[in-house]
Amino acid sequence: MANAETKVVKLPRRTALKQTTLTETIFVEIRARLQRGEVGPKDRLLDYEIADEFDCTRMPVRQALLRLVNEGYLVGTTRGFVMPTLTTDDVHEIFEVRRLLEPSAAAGAAAALTDKQEAALKRAYQKARKAYDKSDSALMIEANIEFRDVWLGAVQNARLKATIQRFADHAQQVRLGTLSNPATQKIAVDGLRALLEGFTERDAKQIKSAMLEFILSAEQRYFALLNGQD
Questions:
Q1: pLDDT digit string, tens, across residues 122-154
Q2: Are both 52 and 67 inside the same structural domain?
């Protein structure tokens, strides 16, 4: 009787976990710096400088930077990576996407919002109030990001959540250009208060209306200040 052939199953190669984790860590950190405005439109991100900072090779850094390029946060140049320059059409398109997605997503998140998340929304709002009282634009940006991240955490659709996160971040240049203005800060605080009231009451209709108004106000303030209006 002939011996049965032994079938060898070749397992797929697994990506090294250490490198994947490091790339993700660098991606999250650079994205956070972009969100907070620590990297501005005139700054250049150089892979070898970031590699020195993280004490690693340039490969995981480049992977993280290229991912940021693919998601629209950065563009590559002959000398490093920079934030994309937004035209007025770009800004209109970003806000159009936000108007289409965020009001419905926030309204849908109301039912899933936990007491812990509600408390986090209140803390973010209080931080925004403090930022307005002190005319602290950096703290105001931080408070806005925290507030958004909390309610996004209650959105059940992962793809929707990721898309909203990305397009809201793409409006970072708008925030940098407007939230240093006291009148804009007041509008932002009032908008967050209306949203917080809706989330506290779990009122989807109020949340949807408040979110749409919040986004429209941000867009209008950007173009008003761009045109020299205060």
A1: 999 999 999 999 999 889 989 999 999 999 999
A2: yes
